[in-house]
Amino acid sequence: MIEIWTQAILPYNLPLTILLGFVSLFWLLTAFGAVDLDSLDIDFDADIDSDIDAGSASPSGDFLVGLLKIVNATDVPLMMVLSMLNLFMWAIAILSNLALNSDQSYLIAAGLLIGNFIISCILVKIITQPLLPFFRSFKKGENDDEPVIGRIGIVKSQEIDGKYGQVEIPRNNGAPAIVNSRMAEGHEPCKRGDKVLIFDKDQEKSLFIARAASPDESI
Questions:
Q1: In the predicted model, what is the mean pLDDT of residues 106-133?
Q2: 135 exposed, middle or buried (CB, 10 Å; 0-12, 13-18, 19+)?
Q3: Which pTM was predicted?
């Protein structure tokens, strides 16, 4: 245990150790409902499409998108992917340096880090692959207006306000759809668990527009 701690605070392992601490704090806050899992998520499809429309695609951007697809970060929540990647990289860094870098060489540590990153990406890919159908089923219908607009849903984010929120829409076939939404102008925010009516969509921001559901409106 002492050897692991010693390795964890070495300069070439310390950044991964600090990141692991932040990741652990994030999941602790998520467990208590203070942070939403999807609060740091990114709509990659929308970002990619906007870059293409603007003609701003670049080799570095293509590489990043390709990397995100490799580790399934375009379908699985980004924070979940990053957490697994950080955990794998930290564990492999500790074990590999213990076994192969007893002299604590920065050059050897750098070489091990490159291999570590590749192996960790492969492990994340393997673990998240079976989860793709599950997360895709939640996203299914987010851009399909017909089964969403006019439906009553339940607020799944900490709250939904005039800028952002997430609503779960029950579906007749398959899993519920989780859609990015915001409250209509002039309406007060709603809390997690409240019922809202999705009645429109902001095409420019790709957000559905909601209002609080009245007592006589039911799912």
A1: 94
A2: middle
A3: 0.62
